[in-house]
Amino acid sequence: MSTTAIGNIGSLVTNDPESGEGPLGLIENAAVVVEDDRIAWVGPTAQAPPADTAFDAQGRALIPGFVDSHSHLVFAGDRTAEFNARMSGRSYSAGGIRTTVAATRAASDAELEANLVRHLDEARRQGTTTFETKSGYGLTVADEARALRIAAAHTEEVTYLGAHIVSPDYAEDPAGYVALVTGEMLAACAPYARWVDVFCEKGAFDGDQARAILTAGAAAGLIPRVHANQLSYGPGVQLAVELGAASADHCTHLTDADVDALAQAADTTVATLLPGAEFSTRAQWPDARRLLDAGATVALSTDCNPGSSYTSSMPFCIALAVRDMGMTPDEAVWAATAGGARALRRTDIGVLAPGARADLALLDAPSHVHLAYRPGVPLVSAVWQRGVRAA
Questions:
Q1: Would strands 157-163 and 195-200 be described as parallel, antiparallel, or unpaired?
Q2: Stated pTM of the model
Q3: Helix, strand counts (H, E) of the chain
Q4: CA quadruple 179, 261, 231, 372: dihedral positive or negative?
Q5: 298-350 residue pLDDT tens
Q6: Pick from 180, 199, 175: which is nearest to 93 by CA?
Q7: What is the pLDDT of residues 162-220, one digit of tens each?
Q8: Who is most buried in 22, 213, 237, 328, counting CB within 10 A?
């Protein structure tokens, strides 16, 4: 057993209202004591118990490590040309995924893992300590299973997304592909995954297909989550709530009934907003203010993927959410930490309280508000993951 005291913290975000002020549980002039991989104590620096080693935060802000609850990091290839064309006036559609599917199938296991690790390291340097990531760029039994196997070696939050789009191999037989996704592919992939996901959208899977896929996944022991209402109005949000999905992700095009459903299901289904996608596609911004005012639980995530949101930066997404989606800085930081934990149904991350995992990010700033106040500036100066200095 070893202990480390991080003291002289100018402003500490605990996300524990019992520990400090407001929803963020703010403590000024604070300290955190870490014992092995867990938080042992939080409070004022003057009251900190002794520890084996000490770290001086020098008046800087300390927050929980970011929880990125939606990403697509097992892929190969590059879609610069598609992005360049889109920025020249061509709109994004689900069909672009096929480019990455071809590159991913052609890549070796070593190449896929090296790319995954590179992106995880990149995100960690920016304060992310928990990563969810998905399959979905193989769309064959073997390629989906290897994607999940590779991902599972690096995170416990792994999602089976064989239903990203209908495989090009089944372009003339969507029903046959749904049967594969709910049958042989599911059987091969379930041992590596915690979650099952589906892109419920025009050009991908309709409501009936999505329900069949999620129901089969749940029967195999996987917990549903849904790509919902990104490109258009549709059944995704209602389906997520109906099936008790952990999250409905994107939530860009919502009816009043959709908002009401997410508010009623606030304890079960999180509305995960992915502003990097809207930034990269020049699409309509999700209305976070509408969801928050209705009482929905909101998370922020990067949606890091090579086609529609090629960013691993949670601070960037916080800045976008504050500037363009109606969130306050406090709400955005909570959504990027505790909100992401809710979307993953975790209570041990996204919070700095005794017993929680010691995942922390030190900012080169006096307050968490600087994450939105100074967009694009690399403010994360130190990261601890499971109590170990990781960046």
A1: parallel
A2: 0.96
A3: 15, 16
A4: negative
A5: 999 999 999 999 999 999 999 999 999 999 999 999 999 999 999 999 999 99
A6: 199
A7: 999 999 999 999 999 999 999 999 999 999 999 999 999 999 999 999 999 999 999 99
A8: 237
CA neighbor of 337 nearest in space, from 9, 11, 14, 29: 14
Residue pair 390/129 in contact by the 8 Å Cβ criterion? yes
**Do residues 288 and 326 make contact, with C-beta atoms less than 8 angstroms apart?**
yes
Provide the 10 A C-beta neighbour count for residue 89.
Answer: 7
376 contact partners, CB below 8 Å, separation of at least 6: 316, 319
Helix (H), strand (E) at residue 4: strand 3-12
Determine the residue type at 210: A
Closest-CA residue to 14 (of 317, 334, 275, 229): 334
Extended strands (E) in 147-206: 157-163, 195-200
Task: Fill in the DSSP letter of residue 286.
Answer: P
| Count of residues in the chain | 391
Backbone dihedral angles phi then psi of residue 229, each to the nearest 5 degrees: 55, 40
Q: The tokens of 219 are what?
A: 């029967």
Cα radius of gyration rounded to whole Å, the chain: 20
80 burial type by CB count under 10 A (0-12 exposed, 13-18 middle, 19+ buried)? exposed
Which residues are CB-contacts of 93 (< 8 A; sequence separation ≥ 6)? 203, 231
Q: Which of 371-389 are b and which e, b meaning 16 or more Cβ less than 10 Å from the residue's Cβ?
A: bbeebeeebbebbbbebee
For the record, the structure tokens of 352 come out as 């700095």
Q: What are the residues facing 332 on neighbouring strands? A: none
First-to-final CA distance of the chain: 22
